[in-house]
Amino acid sequence: MKPLASAKVAGAIASALISSSAFATSVFINEFHYDNDGGDVDEFIEIVAPEGTDLTDYSVVLYNGNNGAAYLTETLSGTVASLGDGMGSYVINLPTNGIQNGAPDGLALVDSNGQLIQFLSYEGSFTAVGGAADGITSVDIGIEETASTEIGMSLQLTGEGSEYDDFTWHANNQTPGAANQGQTFNFTVTPFINEIHYDNDGGDINELVEIAGSANTDLSGYTLVFYNGNGGSDYATESLSGVIPNLNDSGFGVLAFEKSGIQNGSPDGIALVGPDGTVIQFLSYEGELTATSGAANGLTSIDIGVSETTSTEVGLSLQLGGEGRQYSDFTWNAPASATAGAVNLTQVFGTSSDTDDGDSGSDDDGNDAPGIIPEGMFINEFHYDNDGGDENEFVEIAGPAGADLSTVSLVLYNGNGGTSYKTVTFTGTLPDEGNGYGTAAMLVSGIQNGAPDGLALVVDVDVVEFLSYEGVMTATNGPASGLTSTDILVSETGTALSTQSLQRVGEGNQRCSFIFAGPADASMGSINAGQLFTQEDDAQCSDIDDGSDDNQDDLVIGLCGDSATLISDVQGDSFVTPLNGQRVVIEAAVTAVLDGGSFFVQEEPSDQDSNPLTSEGIAVYAPDVSVSTGQIVRLLGTAEEYYEQTQLSDIEANLACGSNTTLATSMWLPVENALAFEALEGMLISNSQTLYVTQNYNYGEFGELGVAPSRLYQPTQIALPGSDEAFALASANALSQMLIDDTGSGDAVSAYYVPDDGFTADNSARSGMQVSNIEGVLGYAFNWYRVYQTKSPTTVNTNPREAAPAISAKDLTIAGFNVLNLSNGDGNGGDFPTARGATTADEYARQLDKIVSALVVINADILGLMEIENDGFGSDSAIAQLVDALNSAMGEGTYAYIDASSVANNNGAVGTDEIVVGILHKPATVSVNEAPRVLYSSNSPSDDEGVLFVDTKNRPSLAQQFIHLASGETFVVNVNHFKSKGSSCGTGDDDYETGQGNCNKTRTRAATAVATWLEAEYPDTPVILLGDLNSYAKEDPITVLNDYGYSDAAATVIGELAYSYTFDGQLGTLDYLMTNALASEWLFDATEWHINADEPAVLDYNTEDNGDLFTNSLLYRASDHDPVIATFTMPSETMAGDWDSDGDIDMIDLQRLSMAIASNQDMDDSFDLNNDGLINIFDVMMLRNMCTNTGCAIN
After folding, report:
1. Angle at 798 between CA 796 and CA 804, to 5 degrees
2. Residue 267, preceding bond cis, omega within 30 degrees?
């Protein structure tokens, strides 16, 4: 929920507080109860902290004073709930007699890094033994509870302030989750850097740094120290002065300070220093740096993640956005119109705790406010979780245009306990964005991450909607107290993008006319894609959308044959049922029964309509109802969209209405449009085409396969990103592919239905396999239309495994192999699970066996590796033990590895990532020439935007020069692993418009850097550049390398249908072996050995849910990327005097040279063996002395 940079700052500030004084901390134990009359009840501990503080992985450790040992640890999770006035609380409830009763005992508060914040005790002091407080003597709080203490009392702090030492301990009536009796918080925000401008188009003007903080804070004595990233020294100091004003009566304000000559990054930094010389913040732009002088000496900066360039327009700045009180509540935004001396464009101060339950200030509590009374409003869109630090979190509401928002608020609830933790208020009125309806959105930082959590929309004091995500919850306080939420049934996870959201789709103007879908591209502050507001809407929604419909309470199931609603009417002719939330009665035949309580029914032919856009089938969720295929059932249920599939739930059933055999409806791929799938949703279908497996990643775990009329390629593998051809291919792929699935529930696979003769490690279900005669019910789940099979299809293995790569051998073989996070723990069987690889020593052993088996068959002279553990180059390192295993299989000394420790920059490791690239070679074929060289950010080429190569995103690039022993030729092998598409790099870097994915700019700049660096380091040298570049063939990074003269060997030999990876059923090359112009002259053959990308993931080294059935040490699915292999014809040296070029000098060469001299034949100067400028008998005499065979004999 906080940006990563903010989290780091918070951690740094917390560490500073702990190291300076345990009593000055603003995160502290505020109240607890441990003993009372009778059996101890309602025991608890309350922690308070500045509002918005995330206490995840903090802990409270309870100590026994009798032996000093810890007896219980409570780990915290989540953000403190607001107490108002800038502070919040976190309550730990303990069981009866959970806290020991003293004489003495104690409790320690520990931060997320394991550092001790407080160690308090009651009924005396003692020294802790073990744990975070080991060796520390507790501080007795001076008061206690006894066996006669009344129930409902507690020990609590009273006084006024915001830090522990502002308060004193007293006994009073307990107040968990609220300010204590006699306690007043007056949290003062530490000043922070709020806005920066340092670079623009032309000569830099209006450069500034702005400071924000609590109103009335005097900045006298504060300073700004400016740092140069090239060397880390300070180059300027600015003394601050003035008092921060109270802007907008928020209690907060800003002061801006102009400063000409702020340096332009790559990187540079700014430190905010307090009057006592303490560094409050050390921020940088365009990278991190370590200060070597001044107040921040020895500290490493925090990169704010956004920057300005020489093309930034005059009048823009970098500024914080979001809402809250302190630095960690806000996020740095890309250049926007400067707001020096005013609140930033997307910034709201103080709203995180501006809740006011008192009088609104008007004569009748606000009901005379201008505008339309806000009726018919609902939550329309929100975003709360994404990959990395949560950013761009917001909530959007919708309703009638002109609605006055002055009495509208949103209360956020924590599902763990049901308490509210934040309230935000809206202002203004709703605009008219279409047909008299509109939206309003607000950035809301710190929205909690579910399982479950909720949000209540409140108008005045009435809850009009109480929604939750990742489950259902009941509110225990605030306006929604006692209400049970409605789960929206879609959610975001840690893999969602920061530019996505959950949003309502459908048609109408009432909340129950729409359903939540997503994650999808966010449309904050505007009507969602897939949403159409209409002026007329007959839907009837309950006051709080809890799924009920009071108008249908009297609907009865009736008798078999009575009138019923047609399934086609329930399904409608679009993606959302027009009867969403309504109770209906249907009567139809069961077509398929799934595990987990679901089945499908379909209308009998006589009840089917003639509209090709309305489906005649529907899913039913009824775990307590037992049915069988062919049975006609009469059902009363609620129509709804469950994860975008129309279904009936809350079922009352009559199971005795006869039987019917349903005939399958034929379908064909590709479909005409997405509605063509939807028109068959829930129906029994058949497909007689010859289809091919396109994806099998989840086959082992979930029993699902992707199929299409042909194998599909990533659009940007075939066509230029953003081109009409690329967009057309993306659309065609979507309409060509569906899943076939078993009838199991979740990861409980009911049966493996392909291959025909059974699925095992030795008999794989490979992508490219032919599948035909598919029959089953078409459903929708997890973003895919899928056929739940009612009979097994027919298969033909049209893509069999290759025992060895299909490539012609030559003088030199070079291969690239992504080894899938090969990590060996500590190298001695311990330190598992590893950060990215095997979780057990057995998994590692199996992974090593699989990889070694593959590398033995490849038998390359040089191997470039990606994703091997970055643990140095000693004997216990992953790369050393891989070579040991290879040599054990192939013979001692067959392979050696390049030891890059001489150019390592991280205590023997290369870069800071958990994984790294590496190089193996055969000393019998090539020798190492010179030391290896590594491209880091520190030695990267730069441009106006800063360093081109960012080694905290890309793995450092490794280059090694070799000599081919047989030919004497010198060449370079360079191994790379560019930033993946899997996580966001932010606005301007991620490419959603043309389909190149996250971090495209980072990869493109890395490609430029590597090519430029190689050209400078190894001029006029053949270079083989290989690696996992995480870019498809037509994407910008590959285009850049092509422009620098590099050609992909696989593309040269195989063409555009080359592939090394599959994702979402689409093939492409992420892995490359490229040659510059000089090396291209040697290229003989190339291939991609498809031992990985076409195999189901269940066959890899990991321990799967399916027991030992698929455990194997085969070379197949050794990784998720295919190895790329190329062979080269190396130039052979011409032997001086070897007339017939047969590799030796013998009598034939003597005779030919003599005859040529006698006949005055023109000859090459190379036969002037004595270098006298003439070719004559003296050269023949010299040649006789050069004979390679005794007596110049002819072999």
Report:
1. 130
2. yes
Cβ distance 182 to 158 under 8 Å?
A: yes
- Alpha-carbon distance of 143 to 806, in angstroms, equals 81
Q: Are residues 345 and 391 in the same domain?
A: no
3-state SS of 946-962? EECCCCCCCEEEEEEEE
207 in the same domain as 162:
no
Supply the pLDDT for residue 758.
Answer: 92
Continuous H helices in 562-632: 567-571
Give whole-number Cα distances, 659 to 251, 270, 588, 1165, in Å: 73, 78, 9, 98
Mean pLDDT of successive 10-residue segments in the chain (1195 residues)?
29 31 69 84 90 88 91 89 84 84 91 91 93 92 89 91 89 91 83 91 82 89 93 90 82 86 88 92 93 92 90 85 84 87 83 33 31 72 81 90 88 88 85 90 85 90 90 87 88 81 91 89 90 83 48 78 96 91 96 95 94 96 95 96 93 93 96 95 98 96 96 98 96 97 82 91 97 98 94 96 97 98 96 91 96 98 98 98 98 98 95 97 97 98 96 97 96 98 87 93 98 98 98 98 98 96 97 98 98 97 74 96 98 78 84 87 86 89 85 84
Contacts of 826 (CB under 8 A, 6+ apart): 876
Task: Work out the number of other CB atoms within 10 angstroms of the CB of residue 581.
Answer: 25
* 8 Å CB contact between 166 and 255: no
β-pair partners for 708: 692
Within-domain flag for 801: no
Provide the β-strand partners of residue 210: 195, 256
For the chain, how many structural domains are there in total?
7
List Cβ neighbours of 95 (8 Å cut-off, separation of 6 or more): 43
Please say which residue of 332, 352, 372 terminates a domain: 352
Closest CA to 990 of 490, 334, 322, 448: 334
Judgement on whether residues 1010 and 1117 belong to the same structural domain of the protein: yes
Q: Could you give the CA distance from residue 132 to residue 982 in angstroms, rounded to a whole number?
A: 36
- How far apart are the C-alpha atoms of 465 and 459, rounded to whole Å? 10
Contact 706, 765 (CB under 8 A): no
Residue 970 contacts residue 1026 (beta carbons within 8 Å): no
The upper half-sphere exposure of residue 248, i.e. CA atoms within 13 Å in the direction of its Cβ, equals: 14
Beta strand 347-349 with 316-324 is: parallel
* pLDDT for the residue numbered 357: 31
Task: State whether 923 and 958 are in the same domain.
Answer: yes
Looking at residue 789, its pLDDT comes to 96
**Partners of 224 in the β-ladder:** 238, 272
Q: Is residue 435 part of a domain?
A: yes
How many residues in total does the chain contain?
1195
DSSP state of 752: -
Q: Per the structure block, which two tokens stand in for 295?
A: 């107040």
Q: What dihedral do alpha carbons 596, 602, 604, 606 form, nearest 10°?
A: 160
Do both 426 and 498 map to the same domain?
Answer: yes
| 921, β-bridge pairs | 862, 896
What does 345-356 look like in DSSP terms, one character per residue?
TTEEESGGG---
Instruction: Let me know whether 877 and 1020 are in one domain.
Output: yes
Asked, for residue 1142, whether it belongs to a domain, the answer is no
Range of the domain at 951: 812-1128
- The enclosing H or E element of 1010 equals helix 1000-1017
Number of Cβ atoms within 10 Å of the Cβ of 416: 13
The pLDDT of residue 1107 is: 60
Interhelix angle 1036-1043/1000-1017, rounded to 10 degrees, is 20
Q: Contact 256/351 with Cβ under 8 angstroms?
A: no
What is the Cα–Cα distance from 589 to 658, expressed in whole angstroms? 9
Buried-exposed string 636-658: b where 16+ CB fall within 10 A, e elsewhere: bbbbbbbebbbbbbebebbeebe
> What local confidence, expressed as pLDDT, does residue 1106 receive?
53
Does a structural domain hold residue 546?
no
Q: Look up tokens 């209308």; give the residue.
A: 603
